Amino acid sequence: MDWSAEFSAAISLPSQTCRSLLKNGADPNARDLDHWTPLYYACRIIKPVSGVDSFVDGFYYQPRARQRAKALILHKADANARGLDSSTPLHCAAASRSLGLVDLLLEHGSEANATNFEGRTPLHLAATTNKASVVSNLIATGAHIDAKDQADRTLLHLAAMSGAAECINELIKRGASPNAQDRFRGTPLSVASIYNSYEGIEALLHARTAEGAPIPIDIDAGNARGGTALHGAASANACRAIKAFYTVKGPNFAINLEPREIDVEAAGLLMTYMERDSWPPTNDSGRTPFHVAAEYGNPEIIVKMIKKANQLHFAPEGILRKGGAYSATALSMAVSNGNLNAVQALLKVRQLATTGTPMERLPPAASDRSAGDGILQRLLEERDNEGRTPLALAVECRETTIVLELVNQGADISVGYKNGQNLLHRAASDGTTEIARAIIENRFQELMR
């Protein structure tokens, strides 16, 4: 009789049922279509359950699963059986946060450094769970703390991106490198920023060695494109569109990499640790975090960076920095992407650059003009390498609402293009009547003053 189906279904039942099936001849190494054995399912059950008290989890769910796994192992279940994705039961137990299951498997010969199809060891998965005891026990039994997956990501990379602060602290104390680079030259800090993991960023910046000394973390390290951790934090909204789940073939399980709501505090925290002379950081294409936030449509982060730069007395001219293929400002980038909210956030530099900071305390570069009106006016006037101001670009892109916003903020409507056309020429030729009307009305009001 083929017991595999009945056995797989019964694995979630009390351990007595599991033992009864084994006594009646069920194969402990039977495989399903994904090549998973019953031992895998026994280890997979342990997951944090919403609304379940930790006491119930620790004294009911986990002991029952351990009993089932032990019964299987005593009946010669293979502790190193691999599924189609090359994961072992220990991978599953490590991701399930169960210290009891991990210890049981290690006691019965599970390979601590077995790798799955992504090159990840059980310790990689344990590092994402925020359960330091599992990490500690795996290392104590020979798991490599410097193991890298196929993307050259270390345990600390995965712990940082998932916000596992306890595991970050444990790994740092055991000597994990805080500045290790993955295949794309991303450090744990920059990866945490990309995944919008405030907890991971905070833990890395505050981590201490086993002797209590601060770690030498490079906050300005650039990735393969020169982007710093702050560039990553500025693009945090992109994580909403990324299914940041690590899954295995067959029955899937997530390991704390769910898409997160945007956390603007991550950018502010990173800026606190920056040197004034390095503001604003630029990537290989010359883009600042303002450019990145504008590109991804993150108005909240733009506002946060303007406020924080003011509080830290960073030069307000940083928002004027040009970059990208067209050597444009962040405002022009927001315009070209048609993102009204990002445009409005950047235009708030008038109010935000002067809030709470006396002029005599501003850097010398900012003291020769109003840190609000002067910067805003320059932001409206800056041209890209095609000679276009943000308003000219908005007219060209037929962004009516953005044109109106820029005009209301005082943008010069007399500017033109390299071919000699003015804004009204372009609006008329494109058939954008609302834009043409706005330009004419604004010009009429100027003449009547």
TrEMBL record:
Which regions are annotated as ANK repeats?
Answer: 85-117, 118-150, 151-183, 285-317, 386-418
What organism is recorded for this protein? Madurella mycetomatis
InterPro entries reported in the protein's UniProt record: Ankyrin_rpt, Ankyrin_rpt-contain_sf
Residues spanning the signal sequence: none
Is Oxidoreductase given among the entry's keywords?
no
Transmembrane regions listed in the UniProt entry: none
Mind telling me what this protein is named?
Answer: Ankyrin-3
Pfam families in the record, alphabetically? Ank_2 (PF12796), Ank_4 (PF13637)
